[in-house]
Amino acid sequence: MELKYKFPNDFWWGSASSGPQSEGTSIDDGKALNIWDYWYEKEPYRFFNEVGPSLTSDFYHKYKQDIKLMKEIGHNSFRFSISWSRLIPTENGKVNEKAKNFYNDVINELLANDIEPFINLYHFDMPLIMQDKGGWESRVVVNEYVKYARVCFELFSDRVKKWFTFNEPVVPVEGGYLYDFHYPNVVDFKRAVQVAYNTTIASAQAIKEFKSLNILNSKIGIILNLTPSYPRSNNPADLKAANIADLLFNRSFLDPCVMGKYPEELIKLVKEHNLLPDMIDRDLQLIKDNVVQFLGVNYYQPRRIKAKAFMPNPESPFMPDNFFDNYEMPGRKMNVSRGWEIYEKGVYDIMINLKDNYGNIESYISENGMGVQNEEQFIKDGMIDDSYRIDFLKGHLTWLHKSMDEGCNVKGYHMWTFIDNWSWSNAYKNRYGFIQLDLKTQKRIPKKSAYWIKEVVKNNGF
Ligand code: BG6
Prior knowledge:
Layout: E1 12-16, H1 19-22, H2 35-42, H3 59-72, E2 77-81, H4 84-87, H5 97-112, E3 116-120, H6 128-131, H7 139-156, E4 162-167, H8 170-177, H9 189-212, E5 219-225, E6 229-231, H10 236-259, H11 264-272, H12 283-289, E7 294-298, E8 303-306, E9 325-326, E10 334-335, E11 340-341, H13 345-357, E12 363-367, E13 372-373, E14 379-380, E15 383-384, H14 387-405, E16 410-415, E17 430-431, E18 435-437, E19 444-446, H15 448-459
Helix pairs in contact: 3-5, 7-9, 8-9, 9-10, 9-12, 13-14
The structure holds 6-O-phosphono-beta-D-glucopyranose.
């Protein structure tokens, strides 16, 4: 078959998922509460249709069935996360044997099916006991996280060769400390900066531990959601606003994690507004010495920015949005279910930026996907015809391919996600999977996109 877009033979094809969104059985088998279990207990009305994280797609019990399906649709790699509150449920640091067995079984099952496990250590799921100690605002919690990371490396790195310290560390900053969509629902820019800073320290410290173990043929990285900040126009005011958004939401993690230092402009901005976090002398050296060895890039939507139209209300909390307004570009293509713009070229722009400004670090698309509501309406002959998802995939893969043609160091593409999963406060509103989950019966039914990706992987292109 004549292929228009051919990918390298060792390209990582697969999908990504996370513990809290797929494992379910939140407090079975010795798992302790994390902030999602707790928040749902306290305020179930904050979750779509009041569906919480207790069952999700029950990966805890159905992982064998799911891994078999992954194999069937051609996965050669799969990223999931370890749930800290499952593995180490109490303050004494003791490992939960049932959790250890579960993760060992998942890893072994993946390997038996020739699917490489990529493990992420933290996917928005702070254990409640750690949140009670101050969460990411506290250095005590940073130290506990590093101990937990070391336990994971020691338990699983004989078989797991790709590790990540965090998934999208800026999201808990935005959700939990600025915009009220994660627990603990704080709205406070200064505290948000402290949380962001401490997360970076935690990541660097975990990388240091990892390196000290000299694990053969392995590497450790971080997964960042990079949302290119496109200015409305070339007007200097728009350019300035877009640059600040980029500094706050992309470069605040990208620069320290990949280049080992914060951008001067960001330091200046933070200082000027009295937002500087508490720091320890050796921190900056730690960051410098422990950059990531590869990078996962999550990409869903761009950020479009314009200069602020009005002076902010001096009585309302000081926020990142004091520096810019979001811009709704006329004619933009939307995924209306999620309210996110679809802009396929974003993937290319991100990769070119990594090539030109970040040493062409080895990277891959670690998440990209399309959450659609009421997908049952597209059922034809018992199968969801998600041709819109196939178009979405084609569009992004085409631009990714172009970036590779131009020398970007891209190693793979993981879709979000394998099976419809629980999407935080959106719960099961929008569906992302290659595989449909029937919530009532827990039945798994491949969608049209599952058959499409299977062919793509088989041919290494399309
Ligand atoms: C990413 C996260 O931000 O986007 C996932 O890593 C998340 O956990 C995904 O599910 C899609 O976003 P949402 O909010 O629609 O679930």
